[in-house]
Amino acid sequence: MKKAIIIGATSGIGAALYKTLLKHHYRVGITGIDLTVVDAINDRSQKNLFAEFLDSRQGHTAEKIRGMTDRLEGLDLMVFCAGIGHLNLDQNYEVQNAANEINVLAFTEVADHSWRFFEEQGHGHFVSLSSIAGLFGYHKAPAYHAAKSYQINYLESLRQKAFHSGKPIYITDIRPGFVETAMTEGKKKFWPVSADKAAEQIYRHIEQHHDIGYVPGRWWLVAGILNLLPSWLRKRF
Ligand SMILES: NC(=O)c1ccc[n+]([C@@H]2O[C@H](COP(=O)([O-])OP(=O)(O)OC[C@H]3O[C@@H](n4cnc5c(N)ncnc54)[C@H](OP(=O)(O)O)[C@@H]3O)[C@@H](O)[C@H]2O)c1
Hints:
The chain has 8 helices and 9 strands. By secondary structure, the protein is an alpha/beta fold.
């Protein structure tokens, strides 16, 4: 039985993904920031699932992962799903930095911990949810777009490390477009998909060890077009 941890999975895409992994016979440890929800999940005593409280802004994320890995008695798959995606119209530093604490600092802590663990173990799979947003800057949410861009490049660097290691270590960058979760509630959405549908597609990308996975797949075309747009056009977004 494969063992997985998902950071940020008591709601949104992460919650849909843990249910998908359970369906496919994984043993899963998940984290959440709402203790009541964490307790409610544990009270249901679902086979092969446990939840733990983790607020990554408080640090100790790697320590928590070590404890969860011991509880699972191993780790094959680590998924970083946590993220904050506020609009920031007045360029408020506090707002930008709160998002950076998760999207940049916690992401880096989890990515580095996972890399070192899988490198020593000789195999493993690190998956992170970046976003189509990482492919362009956007004036209404500068920190979110920049952080997702950081994640995309960081994941590419880890993928190179994995390749040079010669070990079966896989790094998957999941780039969703619009998924119906709390993060996108009340926002205009283009090609939206449900969290369940997104989770099924993410699962397929994981099983096939894809380097990059667009969710849904047609965002691949948008990514290609974005790459070709000149800056005089991009500044009008
Ligand atoms: N929804 C979209 O359209 C979309 C598009 C592109 C990329 N993404 C990315 O997909 C990922 C999941 O997003 P979502 O749509 O599922 O959003 P969501 O419903 O708002 O979920 C955000 C996740 O981040 C976790 N989180 C927030 N603050 C945290 C903290 N301080 N410490 C640890 N975890 C924290 C939450 O944990 P809890 O489980 O406890 O709530 C939750 O699982 C994010 O990285 C997001 O950027 C989403």
